[in-house]
Amino acid sequence: MSWYKLSGAAAQVESTESPEAARKHLSHHVPESFTLGELADAVREPLGRASATKPAVSSTNIAEVRAQLLAVLVCLRCEDRVRRSSADQDAVGDLANSITKIIAPAVSQGEGVDQDGDLPAVFNETLTQAREQLVQYCTTFSSLGIQSLEALMKLASPVRLDDEVLLTLVAFADQTRDWTTPEAKAAATRLLEQQFRDAMPTKEHFITEVVLQSYLRPLFSRAKPASITASGRKAEYADSSAARGENIPDDSALTKPWKYTDLRAIPAVAWAVHEADTQLIAQHWPLFIPVLLALADDSTTPIRRQGLLTLTDFLSKFPDRTLHDTGLAKVFEDAVFPTLAFLPSLTPEAESVELLEPAYGALLSLANKQPRAGKDGIPGGPKNGLLDRMLRDGVFMAYFHAKAHVRLVEVLCQQTEAIVNEMGIHAVKHLKDLIPMLSAIMTDPFAPVAPGTLLAAVGALQAVLANCWPRIPASPWQDEIINALALCWLHVAEHDRRAAGTEATYAAIERQLATSAQALAAVLKTAEQGPINLSSHVAPLLAKEPRLAQLFPSS
Fold it and tell me: Residues 319, 322, 323, 328: what is their CA dihedral angle, to the nearest 10 degrees?
């Protein structure tokens, strides 16, 4: 077939033109009859030449690669001209591999990437620039490439695609990646589902043998943490050379190819964990551990965040007994806790917020996997110990160091609510820190400027009232809570609400404050020395400030 004329005509098609419109313009250049084998032979050399330029991005390169992919797509969309052949299965595999090499977010060492593994990335801008180029390259051609793969599979009977093709589809099925689009994600997901439904191997085999064993294990071999053994269990004695800092892995393409040269790895980890069931993880958990710990400890914020989110998903499926018997609970705890200290000013506020939410989520998931009581039956068990540490060394420490950052304070209040609800009555030991912190946030005259933070603080206070109520009546915290509710109510009432769309937000804050006051009234009625009537208690306050009557209505 005359591929030169077809690809030359495709190069003249405007980049804004849809593939369907392009098909109408180019269809007369497509042979009246051809086999998939003939198409594979025709495109092997030009597609190989195009993929060899990756990840260089230039106007000439973009135009050439786009023309080649568009020509392939046009041919595959002319279904009535495709002549069936006994060699179709081999041809489908060849075509899929050729297309995948162009769009895959991965390059071999030497293809536009500095191979000097001794230089940390902070001193080697070539690595970062190459990664950005690779993402830009794949983003540019992802739509045409995935459409071509989908069109190809519609023409063929069930064919087992190569592992490299499937790994690339996994990368494009992850909506959080820079190089994919909603359309590419949907198409890649459909192709994966078709593969595991119609062709061998099973999804379970692909996850364990291909993704975990053959693909991820070699990629992460140089980044294994010293806290675990080769089998994925807790190391009783850390590597002495690592402890002295002699084997600290540098942030390079040599030690972290999954970060710079093969960007499919991180979505592959997330996909494998998401698609695995509890039985698969129970049987093959050692294969997951080194990879998850490496991601959760990475210095790059987006990767660290993804690692924490994936770890949370993994923990939800990890057997409780195995977690306890292997000592991995402590390994995970020690791996995640340093992230709680990623605070301003060393860490930008936006990045800190991005990291703290998944870090607390991973620790809460870990806490829920552990027994509340210890071996002797007393409450000071692993779960309560971890939750205590999350408040003391997490929330309170972060608030002390970064309370001027309102977005961060909002996250801390949200996590306080979750932790207190998980602790239950055992949270009373922290009242001396909880109440002053929440009171300081709610009584700040400028608090209404950040309504989200204020709502989160009120929600945390409600969690305290719901779980710590036996210790509140007739305690110093009783009046401090009343003071916080009253001042917060007045500050919200006095705040200028002329900004568009803010009225509903402040009305919601007032509703939550009123709900908190009702909860406090119910708590005070449980006092051991006799019920305390909140209305009578705050009567002198209402006499001086009638605007509080809506907050503390007479019962």
Answer: -140
Residue 303, both tokens: 């990767």
User: For 61, what's the count of Cα atoms within 13 Å in the CB-facing half-sphere?
Assistant: 17
The whole-angstrom separation of Cα 190 and Cα 418 is 37
Q: Which two tokens mark 539?
A: 């009567």
CA 16, 18, 19, 24 dihedral sign is negative
Domain boundaries, the chain: 3-162
All residues at 6 or more sequence positions from 61 whose CB lies less than 8 Å from its CB, including other chains: 53
Residue by residue, pLDDT tens for the chain (555 residues) are 577 788 888 888 877 677 677 777 888 888 899 999 999 999 998 888 877 777 776 666 788 888 889 999 999 999 999 998 888 889 999 999 999 999 999 886 544 444 444 434 444 567 777 788 888 888 888 889 999 999 999 988 788 899 999 999 999 999 888 888 888 899 999 999 999 988 767 899 999 999 999 999 999 987 766 666 655 566 665 554 444 344 444 677 788 889 888 999 999 999 999 999 999 999 999 999 999 999 999 989 999 999 999 999 999 999 999 998 888 999 999 999 999 999 998 999 999 999 999 999 999 999 999 987 655 455 568 899 999 999 999 999 999 999 999 999 999 999 999 999 999 999 999 999 999 999 999 999 999 999 999 999 999 999 999 999 999 998 999 999 999 999 999 999 988 776 656 788 899 999 999 999 999 999 999 988 889 999 999 999 999 999 999 999 875
Phi-psi region of 245 (alpha: psi -120 to 50; beta: other; left: phi over 0): left
